[in-house]
Amino acid sequence: MGIRELRNSLSAVLRELRPGSVLDITDRGEVVAHLVAAGADRKRTRYQMMIEAGDIKPATAPAGWFPAWPKSKGLPLPPGTAQWLIDEDRGE
Asked: Which residue, among 14, 77, 11, 20, has the nearest Cα to 43 in the 3D structure?
């Protein structure tokens, strides 16, 4: 719906919106906003709406897929790099 049309009939549009429905607002044919009716879908997050709109894709890797950080030996860097500076700073 165009901005001018929405402005001229806002009360009627708001009465007709159903809970959870989305109305695209356009300016010169380009969508500039989404009017989302309160109701059943109020718990949807912006993230979920962006996925549904195709703006973003959800992560596919399972949570915790990255390797564990080494706990005993400090940073895994080759000798002569920042590891040397860290060791020197610690007095090791």
From this structure: 20
N residues, the chain = 92
Encoded amino acid at 30, one letter: E
Q: Residue 15 belongs to what domain range?
A: 1-59
Determine whether 23 is exposed, middle or buried from the number of CB atoms within 10 Å of its CB (0-12, 13-18, 19+).
middle
> What is the model's pTM?
0.40
Residue-wise pLDDT tens digits, 34-79: 888 877 555 677 888 888 888 988 878 777 676 666 565 666 666 6
Domain presence at residue 88 = no
